[in-house]
Amino acid sequence: MNATTRQTIIADYSPEMTPPCSRFIRRCLTAIIGSAMFLGLGCQIPAAGKFEQLRKGMSESEVVALLGQPSSKTPPQMNKNGQVDVPAFWQYGDNLSTFATGAMFKDQPPSDRVWVVFFDADGRTTSWQKPAWDE
Fold it and tell me: What is the pTM of this model?
């Protein structure tokens, strides 16, 4: 095949020329990868018995060592007077619903459907809560 023939083939290529099975495989792989990313959102759940080991005054690094990385972190929410309305908190076990709600309504307290660890201004634990279904 000479250079002119090769250029003609490349110039004439269009996505419609891709075999249907190849497009199907690409779509399936995209769906599988997207589903894995979606399902991975709720995978940061504390191991059994670990949440009970939390203690008041623990540092953020101690919490990470005990529970692992949170599924979401929320900084403290201040009111118009500069006072803290909602303290900083980390959530474990977010699903798409709790993640989206937290992103949309940052001035609201955390969901009662996830594990939550609250921190003071120095990054030390002050309190924590289990999901309503785990009590």
Answer: 0.61
